[in-house]
Amino acid sequence: MSEYLAGTLPEHLQIAASDPLELDGVLRELPQHNEISDIHWLLATANMAVEKVVLLDAPDRTVATASLRDLDFIAGSLLRHGSDPFADVSGLEAAMISMGSAADTVPRGTIATYAAANPTGDR
């Protein structure tokens, strides 16, 4: 990545570049759906993401952290619009705990998932 930020660890650059749940295309639409409070789209996206996490086979730290980042984007959006993501999306809490364990981090909202490991540019 030519967009190296001062103070960003190489590990964070790998996480930022990673799309293990193949959600880049879908998450590009997230701002528009947040703008109109489209809970149905958010729930469908969350369910799709959970299904993809279940298919991950022994994720390494990079994959787990990138997955957690994307799950957190969706869960945070659901919370923003009054949904309880853990009650409304079957398996979301377990997916986040699993990815948090694999990444050796807390399963929700850290400085790494909100900052250095976030995708750059169009992502």
List keywords for this structure.
single chain, 123 residues, 0% strand, globular
Question: Could you give a quick summary of the protein structure above?
Answer:
This protein has 123 residues and is mainly alpha-helical.
Topology:
Blueprint: H1 10-17, H2 24-27, H3 30-35, H4 39-54, H5 61-80, H6 85-88, H7 92-103, H8 111-114
Describe the structure.
With 123 residues, the protein is an all-alpha fold. The protein has one domain (10-114): Methane Monooxygenase Hydroxylase, Chain G, domain 1. It contains eight helices and no strands. It has helices at 10-17, 24-27, 30-35, 39-54, 61-80, 85-88, 92-103, 111-114. The longest helix is centred in the middle third of the chain and has 20 residues, at 61-80. It is globular. The two termini are 13 Å apart.
Q: Structural class, please?
A: mainly alpha
Q: How many E strands?
A: 0
Low-confidence residue ranges: none
Question: Mean pLDDT across all residues, rounded?
Answer: 86
CATH topology: Methane Monooxygenase Hydroxylase, Chain G, domain 1
The shape, in one word, is globular
Report the radius of gyration as a whole number of Å. Answer: 14 Å
**Terminal CA distance:** 13 Å
Output the helix-strand order: HHHHHHHH
Fraction of helical residues: 55-70%
Strand content: under 5%
What is the CATH first-level class name?
A: Mainly Alpha
Largest sheet: none
The CATH architecture would be: Up-down Bundle
